Fold:
Amino acid sequence: QKEVEQNSGPLSVPEGAIASLNCTYSDRVSQSFFWYRQYSGKSPELIMSIYSNGDKEDGRFTAQLNKASQYVSLLIRDSQPSDSATYLCAVNYGGSQGNLIFGKGTKLSVKP
Amino acid sequence: KAGVTQTPRYLIKTRGQQVTLSCSPISGHRSVSWYQQTPGQGLQFLFEYFSETQRNKGNFPGRFSGRQFSNSRSEMNVSTLELGDSALYLCASSLSGGPSGNTIYFGEGSWLTVV
Structure:
């Protein structure tokens, strides 16, 4: 059973702080990793994708991948109240990218 | 560029009925996937279509089915609705699928309530 695990939270950080979101996955053959942001009542929106070990930065967001530890994380620097949402980790275990396994999400709350 | 369009956005059905949901992918996208999202189970993969063929299937009963047309538009059908089928059904499209390099875009979803 392929699984993606996330801490459900809620994770609460003050405005301007760094929010750290973590995700572990069960299958070593995983190839692609994604972070989606979902606001309440809305559909998921892709924030970051990462395919190789190391860090990938995009603006205030940094995704980190460690395939040996089967661990992927998302750092949000200078957190803003508008970042308050549920963050979903998704893993593609091979085959088409349409077959993503999602974690249940971590709810982030950024307090002004 | 128009996004992924799903219809209807909201619907209420009675137990035992069937429902058909529609999805129009982004122009040029040939891969369409369907997901079910519930508070308890989160986002779960239903199936994926590419060039009118089902390429992947999740662990859902046969009451859930889908199809894709030659213009890449897709429909999913749920027969003999159960209360537990109440969920947000999300359609996602990408250029061609594949393990990397294709961004998946989600539609706004269809909210199904079964009473």
Q: What stands out?
A: The mean pLDDT of chain B is 92. Chain B is about 0% helix and 50% strand.
